[in-house]
Specification:
By secondary structure, this protein is α+β, with helices and mostly antiparallel strands. The chain has one domain: Gcn5-related N-acetyltransferase (GNAT) (Aminopeptidase). About 30% of the residues lie in helices and about 30% in strands. It has five helices and seven strands. It has a seven-stranded mixed β-sheet. A hairpin with a 2-residue loop joins strand 3 and strand 4. The protein is globular and about 45 Å long. It starts with 7 loop residues before the first strand and ends with a strand. The model has no long low-confidence stretch (mean pLDDT about 90).
Amino acid sequence: MARTPPPVISDGDAGARAWAARALEAAGLCALSTATDILAARAPDGALLGVIGLEGHGRDGLLRSLVVAPAARRTGTGAALVAAVEQRAATRGLRALYLLTESATPFFSARGYEPVSREAVPCAVRASEQFRLHCPASAVCLRKAL
């Protein structure tokens, strides 16, 4: 069996943002805000495989809208994007990442994210549009110290 080459991770451009908007809509997830910093995973031929967003809020970050193309799922693309965004956050001096999810708790738990109550999330992160407007109360809140 041929091994899938690892994705190339880079800053997301306008094309990655447009791809993300379509993929997130198709998955029923919230669109990324224009303030969200995005990273894109591409195949060696340049095809987009996935994106992930990061919002900085003071000393903490909000991991946003990981989405991977259906054909690239279970290939390590999602894990590579999470590792890259964690590295980006650490480089920027963020101390922890938070996220809200309704369906990906096992994926993120396997990468060291732990459940936390919304009340325990720093005020700056809770004040984000994502927390205030887009994620239902049923979404699980997760945290990872960096």
